[in-house]
Amino acid sequence: MFLDMVSSERFLVALFAAWALTPVWFIVVGIICESRVVPLWRNQSRAFMPGDLALGVTFATGWYLHPWFDSTLLVVGVVAGVVLLCLMRRKFDGTNNYPLPTLRSPTKVYHDYVLYIGYVAALVSVAVPGILISSWSEMMPLKIVGLAAFVIWLGGLVVDGVDPDMPRKRKLMHVSDWRPIWRE
């Protein structure tokens, strides 16, 4: 039954759509708009890699288990995404963290506006509640996988928060000296 769920078209379409948003499209934005390859493991946030892959599993699980669109929850999620973005921008703005050219870099803009507001809104408002409110009896293995994946992402945030090397890594994740590929 578990294998039927994770191999279903509904689950796989949601999973690959989530992975297309991040990390795939994020990497494409780096290549096309910044003329660079985004670091995937070394010099990278653990919330991004493997965290974003795990978030894709959480998203696909929530999509599979819950009727996807609930307008009230989605509005709450978008507001939560905007608030999170504002708090993160306030914490990381400034020369010690992200100078202004870095904050305007395409990968940083994509990360903050598309991923924080869009992706996080969908996760907060639909996927995680979808996992929690759907039937516990018959979907238990899939729920465990979805919630475990969410914990992996949260663990990445914790690891990043205590990593003493994060200020150096941050300068490599989003760069200030970027140029689009067509201007090379």
Beta strands, count: 0
* SS field, number of helical segments: 8
Major sheet description: none
User: How far apart lie the N and C ends?
Assistant: 52 Å
Give the structure's gist in a few sentences.
With 184 residues, the protein is mainly α.
Give structural attributes:
about 180 residues; 8 helices
Structure notes:
The protein has 184 residues and is mainly alpha-helical. The chain has one domain (2-183). It is built from eight helices and no strands. It has helices at residues 2-6, 9-34, 51-65, 71-92, 100-103, 106-133, 140-162, 166-173. Helix 2 runs antiparallel to helix 3 and helix 3 (51-65) runs antiparallel to helix 7 (140-162).
Please write out the topology.
Blueprint: H1 2-6, H2 9-34, H3 51-65, H4 71-92, H5 100-103, H6 106-133, H7 140-162, H8 166-173
